[in-house]
From TrEMBL:
Keywords noted in UniProt: Repeat, Signal, TPR repeat
Signal peptide: 1-20
TPR repeat feature ranges: 234-267
Classification lineage: Bacteria, Pseudomonadati, Pseudomonadota, Gammaproteobacteria, Vibrionales
Name of protein: Uncharacterized protein
Alphabetized InterPro entries for the sequence: ARM-like, ARM-type_fold, TPR-like_helical_dom_sf, TPR_rpt, Ycf3
Keyword hit for Signal: yes
Length: 382
């Protein structure tokens, strides 16, 4: 079970990074205009050519372009991390114009936390409040991974972000003076916040910020209010379940996800989250069923198909093999070709040699040697 959780957690992190890259502008742009948010999120709607990405890299660094054009190019780069994109981000973070610096913060989203901290920590005291709160939003989601020194460094900026978002969300500063103990009910009822008065986008971001900062009860109050206001909003339910899971309340998280699925039965991310929750509850067969639904609904999400391969292996080996194959067909990613070859080796598939030959074109020799040794072991075990 620990090994399975490690595999799923790693894959979930990969998925969350992709998701974060696609929605970083949404989270940061809850403090921006709707038009900026639309421009940022639309960039992930369809596959983008490497030539287009390179054009954005060039535009972002071209001082002859307007500040707005360079900022827009940086926001477009958020889902496409690369060495060239990183150069554009670093230069953007040092730009004289606050609009460009803020856009560079958004473009920094997909990079590893250690790198983002080095790049963005200086902006926690930027002269522009907009830049400060955007940088804080970017970093605070990794609060649990921060060292005590880093947590101390970000605390003042965090408090500023809370005040900023509370004003935008129309949440009173006295709302959390006395947060009642949470009963066992999933949705307690929003008696501390008037759902009708909330700015929903800002309130959801504020709730997430509280969750990332590990203030679970404050987050819960807002999630309850948001569910009252928007009971069909899948993202609110997903965040609520994350808040419960973070406290080790996996059974309650599962109940929340089931309620969400009743309202949004065609939302693949709900089934994905349910699958991971079921794994934590050691209900592997049900977890496999849930991730299979998610993969089929999402169709082209290679990570869902990969996870389906992992979970189906102990349930239905044929489904497992086909899922790994489908994941690779969708993404063409080397790590997913490796997963295909690995399952071929372990199931003594007739296509093993062909797969290893293909993997050998891109993988180090020792990787192929390890798989071939494993294959010989499978033959010897017969």
């Amino acid at each position: 079970m620990k090994k399975l959780l490690t595999v799923l957690t790693t894959a979930a992190l990969m998925t969350s990074q992709v998701y974060a890259a696609g929605t970083s502008a949404m989270n940061a742009s809850a403090i921006n205009t709707d038009s900026e948010q639309s421009q940022s999120t639309q960039s992930t709607a369809s596959p983008i050519s490497s030539e287009q990405v390179q054009q954005w890299v060039y535009t972002a660094q071209d001082k002859r372009q307007s500040d707005q054009a360079r900022a827009n190019a940086l926001r477009q780069l958020a889902p496409y991390p690369s060495q060239n994109s990183l150069v554009a981000v670093v230069r953007g973070l040092q730009d004289d114009n606050a609009i460009v610096r803020e856009a560079a913060v958004i473009a920094a989203e997909p990079y590893q936390f250690a790198n983002r901290w080095r790049m963005l920590a200086p902006l926690l005291t930027d002269p522009s409040q907009q830049v400060r709160v955007t940088a804080t939003t970017n970093l605070i989601r990794d609060f649990g991974n921060m060292s005590p020194a880093q947590q101390g460094t970000i605390e003042t900026a965090y408090q500023e972000l809370v005040v900023f978002l509370s004003a935008q969300a129309n949440v009173s500063s006295t709302t959390f003076d006395t947060v009642p103990e949470m009963p066992s009910d999933i949705v307690r009822g929003a008696d501390s916040v008037n759902p009708d008065s909330l700015n929903l986008k800002s309130a959801l971001l504020l709730a997430d910020v509280y969750r990332w900062h590990q203030e679970w009860d404050k987050a819960q109050v807002l999630y309850d209010s948001l569910i009252t206001a928007e009971p069909n909003n899948a993202q609110v339910w997903l965040s609520l379940s994350d808040n419960l899971r973070a406290q080790g309340k996996d059974k309650q998280a599962l109940e929340a996800l089931d309620k969400a699925i009743e309202r949004q039965p065609k939302e693949a991310n709900l089934y994905y989250s349910k699958s991971l929750t079921l794994v934590r509850l050691e209900q592997k067969i049900k977890a496999a069923d849930a991730i299979e639904i998610a993969a089929k609904m999402a169709e082209t999400n290679s990570y869902f198909w990969y996870l389906n391969g992992v979970l189906q292996e102990s349930v239905n080996i044929d489904k497992s093999v086909k899922s790994f194959e489908q994941a690779y067909l969708i993404s063409g990613a080397p790590e997913q070709l490796y997963a295909v070859c690995d399952i071929y080796v372990r199931t003594k598939n007739d296509k093993t040699e062909a797969c290893l030959d293909e993997l050998g074109k891109i993988a180090p020799d020792y990787v192929i040697a390890e798989l071939k040794t494993k294959a010989k072991g499978q033959v010897a075990s017969n």
